[in-house]
TrEMBL record:
Pfam families: GFO_IDH_MocA (PF01408), GFO_IDH_MocA_C3 (PF22725). Residues 156-282 form the GFO/IDH/MocA-like oxidoreductase domain. Residues 26-143 form the Gfo/Idh/MocA-like oxidoreductase N-terminal domain. GO terms for molecular function: nucleotide binding. SUPFAM superfamilies: Glyceraldehyde-3-phosphate dehydrogenase-like, C-terminal domain, NAD(P)-binding Rossmann-fold domains. This is Gfo/Idh/MocA family oxidoreductase. It comes from the Bacteria. InterPro entries: Gfo/Idh/MocA-like_OxRdtase_N, Gfo/Idh/MocA_Oxidoreductases, GFO_IDH_MocA-like_dom, NAD(P)-bd_dom_sf.
Length: 367
């Protein structure tokens, strides 16, 4: 090969690789029944992701959403296998019931197709372990999408804690939820499986308890709790006849405790966290407002209030982050909220919480 040609190839190859990296990620959407599917269907046009196919067996639902969001019914398929053959996606995002997450991973992992599921990771601990083994065996990224993962306030709370601003961690209280699925008017297709213990794994405990377990595992950098104690109630039997709609979960650690309060009975929707250290407390009041209080004397304190801007790309959008991880532009820490390692522990916590509530006992987690 002529020397000049070799030089040209060496110059062009990196440019071609950069161009390939910038090609839109071919994303398939599996299911349309999850209320969060609007995140992708409403997403503004961008050159990072191209939605190439949708899997949905409910044709009436697909037609309704196609009219609402402007996608073509030509990209809607009846099965995941059919969609994969026709569109050859690099990745899929699951927006069906939680039980189907395992089937999605079982189908996609052997084909090298990356997967992002909505929280919680799985319908139960057994499914989560199978999903984790498949992801590791076939080397795919398996992420779990939480709205709270990249809240500016949660990220700031994590940074302040690691910087020692409030001293050693002692207690975390996480409260998540709303009035209840029926009361807030979720779609009939969403309500049908969200209140089905087989398809969702439980009620409010699973739906919102996962947020607290996920955040605590992140703050503790993968430390598993020593014990899990949970109490559930059904305060709206007329709306949630098959599942719990209110729960309190207590997690004990070697040097700290967490209290998780997932509920479908909050009068006002909320996703907030309190982080207590030895010398102060961090209040992540909502997505953008955080307060840092430092102890002064018995009950006095100084307070600093942060009104935080949204995080920069790709942390501003779950799909942008998914694409960045797949391209190798972002490497998640081993216990970051989206990570497989974190969500396996989160599912272990939820499984123990369900068993605790069912047996009226504290569940001891062993190595």
């Amino acid at each position: 090969m002529p020397k000049r040609l070799i030089i040209v190839i060496l110059v062009l190859l990196p440019l071609l690789q950069i161009q390939a990296q910038k090609e839109p990620l071919r994303l398939g959407v599996v299911g349309l029944t999850h209320g969060h599917v609007g995140w992708i269907l409403n997403r503004e046009s961008s050159d990072d992701i191209n939605m190439v196919g949708i899997v949905e067996t409910n044709n009436e639902l697909a037609l309704r959403l196609a009219k609402q969001h402007g996608f073509s019914m030509e990209i809607v398929y009846g099965t995941l296998e059919e969609m994969i053959r026709a569109t050859k996606p690099h990745a899929v995002a699951a927006f069906g019931n939680i039980k189907d997450h395992l089937t999605v991973v079982e189908t996609c992992a052997p084909k090298g197709i990356h997967v992002m599921v909505e929280k919680p990771m799985a319908v139960n601990w057994e499914h989560a372990q199978k999903m984790g083994r498949l992801a590791n065996e076939y080397g795919i990224h398996l992420l779990t999408n939480y709205e709270t993962s990249w809240y500016p306030t949660n990220e700031k709370a994590y940074q302040l804690l690691k910087e020692g601003k409030v001293g050693a961690l002692r207690k975390v209280i996480v409260r998540d939820g709303h009035k209840g699925p029926k009361k807030i008017g979720v779609s009939p297709e969403f309500l049908e499986w969200l209140t089905d213990p087989e398809l969702n794994g439980g009620g409010a405990l699973m739906d919102f308890g996962c947020y607290g377990g996920n955040l605590m595992t992140w703050l503790q950098q993968g430390e598993r709790p020593l014990s899990v104690t949970a109490v559930t109630q059904q305060l709206q039997p007329e709306n949630n006849p098959k599942v719990d709609d209110d729960a309190t979960i207590i997690l004990t650690y070697k040097n700290a405790m967490a209290i998780l309060e997932p509920s479908w009975n909050w009068p006002i929707g909320r996703k907030d966290m309190e982080v207590y250290g030895e010398t102060g407390v961090i209040y992540a009041d909502n997505r953008n407002r955080l307060r840092l209080r430092i102890s002064e004397g018995y009950d006095g304190f100084s307070e600093e209030v942060f009104n935080l801007e949204e995080r920069t790309a790709p942390y501003h959008d779950p799909f942008a982050l998914f694409a960045a991880v797949i391209r190798g532009e972002i490497t998640l820490g081993p216990y970051d909220p989206y990570s497989l390692e974190n969500n396996l522990i989160t599912m272990e916590i939820l499984d123990a919480a369900l068993r605790s509530a069912e047996t009226n006992s504290t569940i001891i987690l062993r190595d």
